[in-house]
Specification:
Helix 1 (24-42) packs across helix 4, helix 8 (277-294) packs parallel to helix 9 (310-317) and helix 8 (277-294) packs across helix 11 (362-374). The protein has helices at 24-42, 57-70, 83-93, 124-140, 165-173, 195-202, 241-249, 277-294, 310-317, 329-339, 362-374, 380-386, 403-417, 462-476; strands at 14-17, 46-51, 74-80, 97-100, 109-116, 120-121, 159-161, 184-189, 214-219, 254-258, 265-268, 274-275, 300-304, 321-325, 343-345, 351-353, 359-360, 391-392, 396-399, 422-424, 429-432, 440-446, 452-459. The protein is globular, with a radius of gyration of 23 Å. The mean pLDDT is 95. The longest helix has 19 residues, at 24-42. Helix content is 36%, strand content 21%. InterPro entries: A-D-PHexomutase_a/b/a-I, A-D-PHexomutase_a/b/a-I/II/III, A-D-PHexomutase_a/b/a-II, A-D-PHexomutase_a/b/a-III, A-D-PHexomutase_C, A-D-PHexomutase_C_sf, Alpha-D-phosphohexomutase_SF. Belongs to the phosphohexose mutase family.
Amino acid sequence: MTIDLATIIKAYDVRGTVPDQLSPEVARAIGAAFARVVAVPEGASRVVVGHDMRESGPGLVDAFTAGVTAAGVDVVRIGLCSTDGLYHASGALDAPGAMFTASHNPAVYNGIKLCRAGARPVGQDTGLADVRELAQRILDDASSVEPVETTDRDSTGSTSERDTLADYAAFLRGLVDLSGIRPLKVVVDAGNGMAGYTAPAVLGTAAGLTALPLDVVPLYFELDGSFPNHEANPLEPANLRDLQAAVVEHDADLGLAFDGDADRCFVVDQHGDPVSPSAVTALVGLREVAKELEAGRTPTVIHNLITSRAVPDLLQAAGATTVRTRVGHSFIKAQMAEHDAVFGGEHSAHYYFRDFFFADTGMLAALHVLAALGGQPHPLSVLAEMYSPYVASGEINSTVADAAAATARVREAYAAAYPQADVDELDGLTVAHWDGHPQWWFNLRASNTEPLLRLNVEAADEDIMIKVRDDVLSLVRTEDA
């Protein structure tokens, strides 16, 4: 049976189990559609393709390559890479790109993250829906699809290979100068993911770069898509425990944890305590804002709507314009480009840089954290406290039968109790009492894929945060009689 591609091609990327959902046949159809929908209309002569450490990656890349070259478009295969390594190649080569990864998902999964030339996003509203529709037609009946116009190009594209790791490492090093920082000991948990490949190149000398004043303690650098030590998803607290213990054991200055495709970076301080991604967003954002102001430019920073209010508070005080956006990398990237923003951050530890083609890179964020820490004498816990003045609940999931009804109950209750609160529906329901006393806000968002409501609460003090959190959860989890 032909698969319904709507089950694996969602708002941001392709994600499915191999081979029942994402098979070589499906990968070939997506490659053919991507070439026709993105590469050929843009006049791109080549597509750059990479993959992570999953065993299924090379075979799927072979199939995808066959689909692209059948449309008359060349393929440059860069082999093993992180997702931000693929974005760098797309930007440096000015070519559309495809990254085969399922990020932190279990070994049976794989997926594809697609981008236009210059690492510009391909999401639901920027071409992915068209790729899905055409790939579905190819799978259902390839003979019904019109042949691609191959004027001024060979009827079949060629395939070449290229090693871009050293260029990627040198590019990142050129954006943040670590040569003058005080010596730091840093534990890096790659989670058997792609940071085990990229960290030695960027933070060490594996790519031929000069040594930095860093003593790197490696944790799970062996590439293994079965993730034998722990899931490569640092957003889950359980997956940080080994890193936290290692930081304390080695008396390190900080720890860095990357997800499977190494585009997200999480930070823990010298005590092993997690530093919130919002605090990292503020820290890195202030560095980028200062650089913009020094160059005589007016800085803009993007943050999603469930980032701490400390982010806009601190960045606006520093002279930046802040833009609040909905959750999701394709939305952030679009806003980054529209506003020519110097930086953007998400609660999920995705960090976006204008200097990195408006794309997200966990490794560049890590370099900024190292530079900020090593450029002054205080421990990371002190720095983190400066950027974490409020109390947050973290994301709390509730399984509900009717997400819309539960959200409506919350909206009605808070409209009646707090008529002066600000309410918006940019992404789910946000109710904010930030301009009054006591200060609090919450956001309630429905999952795109599961019967879940996700709650985030922040307040000026813990008692208020707990009260708002518990009040909203009681409304969410009380079904209508």
